[in-house]
C-alpha cells in the first residue's frame, strides 16, 4: 500500500504523529499545524523532517489544503470550550472558530481525505460542535463511529477519558462501516452512563473516611489496583539512580495546605489520575503524586492528622516522601516512546504543560489500526 498522506492539525507536541508511527500504518505526515511556540519547538525537535506550520488553521486556504492532497486528517481541537472547568462556550467560544472552519472546508476540498480521527475531552459528545461535525461528515459521505476511552483499556495505569471519532469515506470500496470493531463502545452521546468505569471526578456526598475520600473512591481505587489487565505504575518510572528526587518532592507548604487533596499512588498501583497542564504547580485534579517511602502506610500517616500540631503534621507528611512524577514519567504514562525528548530550553513547567494538552499515544495507535484495517 502506498504511504498515506496525513495532515495533523492542532499538532501540539506530536501525539498523533507518534501514534501514527506506533500503529505501523504506512503513512507520512505531509503537514502539521499549531500556533503554540513551545509545543512547536518540541515537535520540531522530535520530527525535524516534518513540515510544521506555525499559523492559525483558519488562516490556511482551501487551495493550500488541496495542494497537500492528503488521505488522512488527524486532529485534537482545543478542548477548553467543552471541559467542565472551561466556560463551556461551545461553538460561541473563539477557540472553536478554527474547528468550524475545518468543517466549512471539508465539503469544499477537491479530494476528501479517506480517513479522519478526532480526539477531544469528555463533554464534547454533547456539544453543538459535535453536532455540526456529525452533520458535515454525513453530508460529505463518511461513515463514522464515536467512542469514549481511557488508557486503562490498553493496559496503561492512567485515567484519561477522551472522546474519539473515527470516520471513513464511504465511497471507499473497502469500507463496510465499523460494526463492532472498537471495543468498549461508548454510551451514545447524550446518555450519561460511564462505559468502562473510570470516572475522573468523585462525588463528595458520601461519608468522609480519611483524607477527603469517600467510600466510593476507596472502592474504585481498590478495584483499579487489583485489575491485572492493567500494568503497575513501577513499569513507568525512571530508574531512581538517574533521578534527582529532591527536585520533584512536594514542597512543605503544599503538603500542609493541600495534603487532603493529593491523589497518592505507590509503585505497585495500577492507576493514576489524568495529568493536566497545571501538574507540578497546582495540586487539585492535576494528576497523581508518588509515594517514595513505602514503610509508612498512607492511611496511618493521615489518621488523626487533624489533631497534630503543624510541625508533627509536616513530619508525618514528609515521611511519606511524596513527589511529582517527572515529565519523562508522565510521557511514559501517556505512551510516548523513549525516543521522544524535550529540547534543552523547555522548562519543567512547560514540559508538564504541553504534555497535559497531549494524548495517549498507545490508545490512539490502536484506534488508527482499527480505522485503517
Ligand atoms: N494533540 C496535541 C495537542 C492538542 S491541544 C498533542 O499531542 O500535543 C490543542 C492545540 O491546538 C494546542 O497546541 C494549541 O496551540 C493548538 N491550537 C489552538 N487553536 C489553534 C488554531 N486556531 N490554529 C492552530 N493551532 C491551534
Q: What do these coordinates show?
A:
This protein is an alpha/beta fold. It folds into two domains: 4-189 and 359-372, 3-Layer(aba) Sandwich (Rossmann fold); 193-353, Alpha-Beta Complex (DNA Methylase, Chain A, domain 2). The protein has twelve helices and ten strands. The protein has helices at residues 15-23, 37-46, 62-68, 97-105, 128-139, 215-225, 252-258, 298-302, 310-319, 327-333, 348-356, 361-372, and strands spanning 4-9, 27-33, 52-53, 72-75, 115-121, 142-149, 162-169, 264-265, 289-291, 322-324. Strands 3-2-1-4-5-7-6 form a seven-stranded mixed β-sheet, with helices on both faces. Helix 1 packs across helix 12. The radius of gyration is 22 Å and the shape is elongated. S-adenosyl-L-homocysteine (SAH) binds next to helix 1.
Compact description:
With 373 residues, the protein is an alpha/beta fold.
Name the hetero compounds present: S-adenosyl-L-homocysteine
Domains, number: 2
Query: Major beta sheet, specifics?
Result: 7 strands, mixed
Rg of Cα set: 22 Å
Helix content: 25-40%
Globally, the shape reads elongated
**Any idea what the CATH architecture of the largest domain is?**
3-Layer(aba) Sandwich
How far apart are the termini?
12 Å
If you consult CATH, what is the topology of the largest domain? Rossmann fold
In round numbers, the mean pLDDT is 88
- SSE class: alpha/beta
- According to DSSP, the number of beta strands is 10
CATH H level, superfamily name of the largest domain: Vaccinia Virus protein VP39
- Element order, helices and strands? EHEHEHEHEHEEHHEEHHEHHH
Q: Which stretches are low in confidence, meaning pLDDT under 50 for 5 or more residues running?
A: 183-208
